[in-house]
Amino acid sequence: MGADRGGHSAPESVLRSVYDAGINNLPRAIREMDFIYVYDNSRWGLTPIVLVQAEKGEILYQARRIPVWLIEALKRV
């Protein structure tokens, strides 16, 4: 879907690559950044939900239900 139709202007392959890189870099970001918040913004029109809050490498909050991709990423923190 193109930007003119309400989608992204980048090709899907680029979007998938950026998404994958973000997931792969999440454990390092949690370890190295002062503050990290991971949100679920998959529910269109509703307020995003905090799934994880981390501070200086320590996970301070984790929602009771988190997606499998996040469970796998957190194993590498």
Structure notes:
The protein is of the alpha+beta class and 77 residues long. The protein has one domain. The chain has two helices and three strands. It has helices at residues 12-32, 68-74, and strands at 35-40, 49-55, 58-62. The chain has a three-stranded antiparallel sheet with strand order 1-2-3, covered by helices on one side. Helix 1 (12-32) packs across helix 2. It is globular. The model has no long low-confidence stretch (mean pLDDT 91).
Throw out a few tags for this protein.
77 residues; 2 helices; three-stranded antiparallel sheet; 23% strand; alpha+beta; globular; 36% helix
Number of strands: 3
What characterizes the major β-sheet? 3 strands, antiparallel
Strand fraction equals 15-25%
State the strand order across the main sheet. 1-2-3
Q: In which range does the helix fraction lie?
A: 25-40%
N-C termini distance: 35 Å
**Helix and strand string, N-terminal first?**
HEEEH
| Oligomeric composition of the shown chains | single chain
